[in-house]
């Protein structure tokens, strides 16, 4: 559902005025409709509704590089977040978790954006300024078993304190995790002691959660390296393992290789991996390379209740999100594949960041960068540093975990349900073209 800003409102007030300026600068077709403000005080229910609208708006905007790089637009969104939650600017303590669950407490302002908070965490850990760009902050939901469900990567225009506290639940956390996909960049991070410890802690955690696929023999070797405190050698071995450095999403549904197929999606190494179990078969995996995705899009819909009609008395239906991508199955055959998941936007953002990273590498560039100084801003320095704790030794492998076999050496050999295009009414402007798309031959599949 879209909400528009009335012309009279858009010219008044800071947020409205900024929206008017932005519409003039970028045009109404580029700028998404913004959730409107009300002239009177909001009830708690209205505050929550506006928070949800604003969150969806920010995630949609993140997928447009033109808007995402606009300081005017980012400033506009930062004010909107603070105004919606009615949070005054003041100094607070904010808890950020490392991948191994270690807590890092930093002193920030409620109005500090993501970059400020990331900088404060880096200063607390004594991470060098030129390595800050290799890490990001993620909003996660902690499950009952202690595992993290990733909600989204916090964007530059977000206010992390406002984002996490507005959810009003202790299960939502902010986590520090590496932000790149190509393991070749590990070398830059491993040159530094703190960077090495962060990568090591994250990798041990991912193995324990089953995100990284490890055989019993590989597990034995890893544990032996742990006992010798050979962190670099541990990471070198881990880099050779399937799903090293991947981000795993919650169980969801896809139309691959058949309709309503339960899958677990992981993103990493320039691909989306789908783990699935067909009736009467063992756990299998299908991989979709990002360089073979011609384009993708995220759409939302509200399923109608049984009977096909909506009744006012039944309340709002739950919004269903879908990520659909057009994939080059063989030399002359493109196929749409659809994943239905509440984390579809996060998946789309992962795809875009993988494409961005591939394009940087293709142009001969590097993701190494100094944290930029904003006008009037200074780099933070912490009065007290906090060391990254070394994780405990790996536990014995879970006997219930199955080995996974590739679904097929050639995806073209798999019977996929064909659809001309996703069942949505999305316009062409909602489609994300892939500049890293490569034409390939059957021998490359």
From TrEMBL:
Gene3D superfamilies: 1.20.80.60, Phosphatidylinositol 3-kinase Catalytic Subunit, Chain A, domain 1, Phox-like domain, Pleckstrin-homology domain (PH domain)/Phosphotyrosine-binding domain (PTB). Residues 378-399 are annotated as: Disordered. Residues 90-181 form the Ras-associating domain. It is found in: Cytoplasmic vesicle membrane; Early endosome. One of its GO terms (cellular component) is cytoplasmic vesicle membrane. The keyword Transport applies. Residues 1-84 form the PX domain. InterPro entries: PH-like_dom_sf (IPR011993), PX_dom (IPR001683), PX_dom_sf (IPR036871), RA_dom (IPR000159), SNX17-31_FERM_F1 (IPR048763), SNX17-31_FERM_F2 (IPR048767), SNX17/31_FERM (IPR040842), SNX17_FERM-like_dom (IPR037836). One of its GO terms (biological process) is protein transport. Critical regulator of endosomal recycling of numerous surface proteins, including integrins, signaling receptor and channels. Binds to NPxY sequences in the cytoplasmic tails of target cargos. Associates with retriever and CCC complexes to prevent lysosomal degradation and promote cell surface recycling of numerous cargos such as integrins ITGB1, ITGB5 and their associated alpha subunits. Also required for maintenance of normal cell surface levels of APP and LRP1. Interacts with membranes containing phosphatidylinositol 3-phosphate (PtdIns(3P)). Monomer. Interacts with APP (via cytoplasmic YXNPXY motif). Interacts with KIF1B. Interacts with the C-termini of P-selectin, PTC, LDLR, VLDLR, LRP1 and LRP8. Interacts with KRIT1 (via N-terminus). Interacts with HRAS. Interacts with ITGB1 and ITGB5 (via NPxY motif). Interacts with CCDC22 and CCDC93; the interaction associates SNX17 with the CCC complex. Interacts (via C-terminus) with VPS26C and VPS35L; the interactions are direct and associate SNX17 with the retriever complex. This is Sorting nexin-17. It comes from Equus caballus.
